[in-house]
Write a structure and sequence with these properties.
Low-confidence stretches: 17-42, 63-89, 129-149
Strand order of the largest sheet: 9-8-7-10-11-15-12
Shape: globular
Helix content: 25-40%
Radius of gyration: 32 Å
Distance between the termini: 124 Å
Structural class: alpha/beta
Strand content: 5-15%
Length: 575
C-alpha cells in the first residue's frame, strides 16, 4: 500500500540572487506585498522618492519666484540670483538618500549591473510626471539682489557646404566624397548616408526636372558668363526650381545652386565631378585636375576663413548655436587707448583661446564697440546720459544677445550713468516678440548699486516717421549697421533711405554707417552724401572697422571679389 505524499517543491539547482533571497529565519510579515500580484510602488526609502521629495522642497521654498514669461519660441526669461548661503537640509533625509543609493549600488536589480541599476532608477525618475507647481510663490521679483534679464534666442539654420556630408556634416576634406547619384550636386561620406538622407529627396527630384526642362546640366557652359551674368543665372535657376517644386526653397536649399562645387576659374567653371579636385586644406574650392593653375592665388587669403566657417557649420549642427561666455568686468576708466576688439577684451581681463568662440564673441560685441569707436572719434565719451539710435535694427543682430549693450558699452564708459538704446525699423518685430518684456530688463547688481541704468526702446516704424513721433528721444549717435544704403530697393521694395538720411542729418549729431564688404562701403557713402542737404564733416572715410565681427558669412553679392562677408566690416563716420 502506497501512501499519498504531497509532491515536494522542486529545489533550485542554483542559489537565488542575493538581492532576491528572502531571510527564511524571520517569521512571515503580514505587511509584505506580493510583488507579482501588485503593481510596483516605490517605497519611502527609494532613490526616486527621496530625490523627488528633496527637489519639491527646494522648489516650493522659492516663494519669491516671479511669474514666468509669455510662451514664445524666440524669447526666454532668466532669473540670475547671486549666490546665497544654502539652507541646511535635514541630515536624516540626506542619509536616507545616500543609504538608498548605496544599497542600489551594492545589490543591483535582477541581472543588471549595480551602476546600470542606479541609472535605470534615475531614468525612471526623469521620465515621471513633473513636480506640481501649485505651491510656487508669485512674488514680483523686485528684490535688489535678483538680476533679471530676458534675451532673444533662435535656432540657427543649417548650411550647405560641398565639403561636408549632407546628412551628418562630417568633413570630407582629404576623403573621397560620394556625389548624389541622381543630381550630382550633393555629397556624402558613405552610401548609407546617401540612402538615409530623406530631406534631400524632394530637392533632388526638382533638380532632375530642371535638367530635363533645360536639356542640359544645371551648370553646363557656365564659364561663358561674366561674374554678374553668372549671379543672375543662379537666381534664375532658383526661380525655375521653385516653380517646378511649387514652393519656395529654404535658404539651405538655395545654397546648393548659389555655391556649387565647380571650378573656381571664372573662364572655366567646369561642373563635372570626375574632372575636379578640391583644395587640400579647406576642401571647399575646386579646380580642374589637369589645370592646377585654375586655383587662383587669391584663394590663399581666404582658405583659413573657409575652414573657420566650416567649423561653425559643424558645431552648430551638433550643438546648436555657439554662445561664448561674456566678460563681467566693469572698467574705471574708458579704454580710449584700445584700438581693436582684442585690446578691449584684454582690458576686460577676458581671454578666449578657441578661434570659433572668439569669432562668435566679436559678432556679439561689434555693435556696441563700433558705437564706442564712433563716440571716441567724435569726443563724446564724457556724457552722463547717452542715447543711441539703431536704424533698420533687426532682432537677429542688434537684439540677439540683449545684455551686450550693457556689457560692452555701459561697463567700459564709467562716466555714463544712463544709457538709452533705441531700436528703430519697420521689420524690427517680424517674429511678434513681446518687446514689452524685453524693455523691462535690468542691469547687473553692481550697476544698480551705482544707480547706473540701461533703458531700451523699440520703435517698429521707419526712422523718419519715428523722428516726428511723440516718443522720439534726441540721440547722441545714429547708427546704420549693415544697412545697404546704396540699394535702390528697401523696405516693401521701395527706396525709403533718402527720407531716413535727411531725418538723421537734421539731428546734427554723429552718424556711423557700416557695411559687409569693401565693395559696399564707398557706394553707401556716395549715396549718403548725395542725399544730404548740408555740408558734412567726414570724421572717418570708408575704412576697415577695427571692431568689426570676425565671424564669416557667405557672400553672394560680390562672391567673385570676396567669398565671405562680416558684420560691420567697413565703416565711415560723418558729423
Amino acid at each position: 500500500m502506497h501512501l499519498n505524499h504531497k509532491k515536494k517543491t522542486r529545489s533550485r539547482n542554483r542559489p537565488r540572487n542575493k538581492c532576491n533571497r528572502s531571510d527564511e529565519s524571520k517569521p512571515p510579515d503580514s505587511n509584505v506585498v506580493d510583488l507579482e500580484s501588485q503593481p510596483e510602488v516605490e517605497s519611502d526609502n527609494s532613490a526616486i522618492y527621496v530625490i523627488q521629495r528633496l527637489l519639491r522642497k527646494k522648489l516650493l521654498a522659492k516663494n519669491n519666484a516671479s511669474a514666468s514669461a509669455p510662451s514664445s519660441s524666440t524669447t526666454r526669461k532668466v532669473l540670475a540670483v547671486p549666490p546665497t548661503v544654502p539652507k541646511v537640509v535635514k541630515s536624516e533625509e540626506v542619509n536616507a538618500l545616500l543609504k538608498c543609493i548605496g544599497s542600489k549600488l551594492q545589490k543591483g536589480v535582477g541581472s543588471e549591473l549595480p551602476t546600470e541599476a542606479l541609472f535605470s532608477k534615475l531614468g525612471q525618475m526623469l521620465s515621471t510626471a513633473p513636480l506640481s507647481e501649485t505651491g510656487f510663490g508669485s512674488g514680483s521679483g523686485s528684490d535688489d539682489e535678483e538680476a533679471e534679464y530676458i534675451e532673444y534666442i533662435y535656432k540657427p539654420r543649417q548650411y550647405f557646404m560641398s565639403s561636408l556630408c549632407n546628412h551628418c556634416k562630417a568633413d570630407l576634406c582629404g576623403k573621397q566624397p560620394l556625389p548624389c547619384k541622381a543630381c550630382g550636386l550633393i555629397f556624402y561620406c558613405s552610401v548609407g548616408h546617401m540612402r538615409e538622407d530623406q530631406d534631400h529627396r524632394q530637392l533632388c527630384y526638382g533638380l532632375r526636372q530642371l535638367v530635363e526642362q533645360n536639356g542640359h546640366d544645371v551648370f553646363y557652359k557656365s564659364g561663358d558668363f561674366s561674374a554678374e551674368q553668372f549671379r543672375s543665372y543662379r537666381i534664375v535657376c532658383i526661380r525655375q526650381l521653385e516653380k517646378t517644386m511649387n514652393r519656395s526653397l529654404t535658404a539651405t536649399e538655395q545654397e546648393v545652386l548659389l555655391f556649387p562645387f565647380i571650378c573656381s576659374h571664372v573662364k572655366c567653371r567646369e561642373h563635372r565631378f570626375k574632372r575636379l579636385q578640391a583644395c587640400t586644406r579647406c576642401g571647399e574650392v575646386a579646380f580642374c585636375k589637369d589645370k592646377p593653375n585654375h586655383l587662383s592665388d587669391s584663394h590663399a587669403a581666404w582658405c583659413a576663413t573657409y575652414r573657420l566657417f566650416k567649423q561653425f557649420v559643424m558645431r552648430q549642427f551638433k550643438f546648436g548655436r555657439l554662445e561664448p561666455p561674456l566678460p563681467d568686468e566693469i572698467l574705471r576708466e574708458a579704454p580710449v587707448s584700445c584700438s581693436n576688439t582684442r585690446e578691449i577684451m584684454k582690458r576686460l581681463k577676458y581671454n578666449l583661446s578657441d578661434e570659433c568662440e572668439f569669432a562668435a564673441l566679436t559678432q556679439v560685441s561689434t555693435g556696441p564697440l563700433t558705437a564706442f569707436y564712433a563716440l571716441k572719434l567724435c569726443n563724446r565719451l564724457d556724457s552722463e546720459q547717452l542715447t543711441i539710435h539703431l536704424v533698420g535694427a533687426e532682432m537677429e543682430f542688434e537684439v540677439d544677445v540683449f545684455q551686450k549693450w550693457e556689457i560692452f558699452l555701459l561697463h567700459i564708459l564709467p562716466a555714463v550713468m544712463t544709457l538709452n538704446v533705441v531700436f528703430v525699423g519697420p521689420e524690427l518685430n517680424a517674429h511678434k516678440i513681446s518687446v514689452e518684456q524685453l524693455a523691462k530688463i535690468r542691469c547687473c547688481r553692481l550697476c544698480r548699486k551705482a544707480q547706473r541704468t540701461v533703458q531700451y526702446s523699440f520703435e517698429n516704424s521707419l526712422y523718419h516717421d519715428y523722428c516726428s513721433a511723440p516718443s522720439f528721444k534726441s540721440p547722441d549717435l545714429v547708427c546704420f549697421f549693415n544697412s545697404g544704403l546704396y540699394r535702390a530697393t528697401g523696405y516693401a521694395l521701395e527706396d525709403t533711405w533718402p527720407d531716413t538720411i535727411q531725418a538723421s542729418l537734421n539731428l546734427k549729431c554723429p552718424v556711423v554707417v557700416t557695411s559687409y564688404t569693401k565693395y559696399e562701403a564707398p557706394l553707401d557713402m556716395s549715396h549718403f552724401i548725395n542725399q544730404s542737404n548740408r555740408h558734412l564733416i567726414v570724421v572717418l572715410p570708408p575704412t576697415t572697422n577695427p571692431f568689426g565681427s570676425e565671424k564669416p558669412e557667405r557672400n553672394f553679392i560680390s562672391d567673385d571679389d570676396a567669398p565671405f562677408m562680416f558684420k560691420n566690416f567697413q565703416c565711415f563716420i560723418v558729423e
